[in-house]
Amino acid sequence: MFARTILVLMFLLAAAVAPITDAAEQSIADTIKKIFATPTPPPRKKTSATRKKKSPTPTPSAKSKMSPSPTPSPTATPKKKRSPTPTPSPRRKKKISPTPTPSETPAGAVSPTPTTTPTPLPPAFTPSPPQQPSATETPKRRGAPNATLTPDAIKGFENYPPKVQQLLTSALELTTRDLTYTYGSADPANGGMDCSGFVYYVLNKNGVTDVPRDSSEQYVWLRRAGKFEPVLSRKDDSFELENLQPGDLLFWTGTYAIERDPPITHGMIYVGREKKTGKRVMVGSSDGRVYQGEPRNGVSVFDFKIQRPTKSENGKLQPTFIGYGHIPGVR
User: Fold this and answer.
1) CATH value at residue 246
2) Which of 33, 109, 183, 259, CA to CA, is 20 to 30 A from 190?
3) Where in the sequence is the domain holding 310, given as residue range(s)?
């Protein structure tokens, strides 16, 4: 009986232990499943990585299980997110369209413009030929052309002393060269001369080498030599002109404004009386003195008159004849 009871107890223990072992086995199996279940997700991560790299590979593996794989539909949603990405593309078009298109089009338009720039240059050169010095010289004369006389047109010229004839002949010859009044010039090779330059050139050519260059100095030169005759009268038939002889130098003041002491501003050479009119004439260079009622500009023959207004007009300078002088060594 005891043995039976032991057997019964053992059977009961075995029966009790059996469910426990079954539960243990089940728990062990569950843990094993969990263990195997946990490694399964990393291959999913690998598959996700593979999907990123190789989109076709996950698709065959998903034939059986990937029916829920419409989940890649969220991948389509990023396509919608990518769809707004084209929106910056118009921005690029807005930025690109202004910068290249205007810059390129003017670049193409600028290339013809240098071709157009040389075209205005020829018209710029075309006006230059008409601007010749000869054209600029003609208006300077402001009147009739230069007047000239031959020695035969001078009354009593044959009776002049030989040195006076030679001096006046060379002076009248310069009136035939169409020389202008050129301030600062004492050489006809320059195309013109001023008044004192004319006197200086003629006297030097005829052996009077000690004559000064300036008209004021020429006046002082004759005063010191005791050869000057002052004239204060306003009449052409004044007794103060009784000693006036052909070849004498004539002097004026007030022909233009200048700081000079003495203020002599103009000089010429007295020629004598013209046969045709009987009037006194002189020769030299001027920028407006008159011959036969017409102003001349340049080396010419001019009428000699000492008449001058008693009053100045609006305070302007008035030419004033002050006297004449005999050239030393000519008579």
Assistant:
1) 3.90.1720.10
2) 259
3) 143-325
